[in-house]
């Protein structure tokens, strides 16, 4: 596998890393350049490119037929050479060891000018060396939209292992997230306490799931706070999915508070979303514009987290705050945030 490793603003020559790629692994690179594993995802030390471990698809008569058609049009030797396949493997993709590499399916779709997502939709996928499979799907519903929001803002896709990590201070909310993964993808993971903190994390070990969220929804691997964006699928979804995604953003990195001034006899409820990613704030504003919200967008003058500064989107009028609550209340899974929004609305009247 090929890795690019950043150290102190410089880069290890990729040619050095590519030597003996069949035997060299990331741990040898870490040991050679004295990189501590816990610093890999920080801004100073990070791996910026990681090849995914192989993902395989359960074959069907439709897929076998498409592969044979692609081989006929593309040429057997050329097809085998590019995908590193053997003749025996190519014509015996049925039986116990019949799972097909997802790269082969993508190449077939490229040759035949087909939509890869339509071919893969609903098929079972798994990683090499694992017997646990999940359904491949990029179609969104309200639960998947909530999960997507949580992964964008609260979760992390690990670099060195096929893990999805979601930390949270409310264990009841985390159990609901776990239930969503179980319901939608058939894999729930495990919840562990975070040492030294009154918080927990949900760890899901699934290479196919990490592959789907990274490649087809655009969630970056590892350090992502400055480059995360809202997946394009959200903008082309119906209102229910968009509201569910908004609710997930409110419950993760959103801040709910009441603002009271001397001239006001009531509390003014405020929602504020503060992020390092300017693009995510612009994308979120684009969604709110679809529902005709009134809001303000601004940035902090002083940088934080090193060279980064934060960008804010704020809904400050009671009317728009009430509209926000009415739109997302049925999709919210964090009871504390929901009750706080409801309480502020009552105090503002």
Quick structural overview:
This protein has helices spanning 14-18, 26-32, 61-74, 76-83, 87-90, 102-112, 116-120, 142-153, 171-185, 207-215, 232-235, 239-252, 278-290, 318-328, 335-347; strands at 3-7, 10-11, 45-50, 55-57, 100-101, 124-127, 134-135, 156-157, 163-168, 190-193, 200-205, 254-259, 268-275, 296-299, 311-315. With 349 residues, it is α+β, with helices and mostly antiparallel strands.
Walk me through the structure.
- The protein has 349 residues and is of the alpha+beta class.
- The protein folds into 4 domains: 3-50, no CATH class; 55-135; 142-221, Homing endonucleases (Endonuclease I-creI), CATH 3.10.28; 239-347, Endonuclease I-creI, CATH 3.10.28.
- It is built from 15 helices and 15 strands.
- It has a 4-stranded antiparallel β-sheet with strand order 5-4-6-7.
- The radius of gyration is 23 Å and the shape is elongated.
- The N and C termini lie far apart (60 Å).
- Nearest-integer average pLDDT: 79
Q: Which CATH class of the largest domain?
A: Alpha Beta
Instruction: Kindly report the CATH topology of the largest domain.
Output: Endonuclease I-creI
Q: Helix coverage percent of residues?
A: 40-55%
Protein structure class: alpha+beta
Radius of gyration: 23 Å
Q: What would you say the CATH architecture of the largest domain is?
A: Roll
How many strands, which pairing sense, and closed or not: the largest β-sheet?
4 strands, antiparallel
Strand order of the main beta sheet, please? Answer: 5-4-6-7
- Give the overall form: elongated
Work out the number of β strands: 15
Report the CATH superfamily of the largest domain: Homing endonucleases
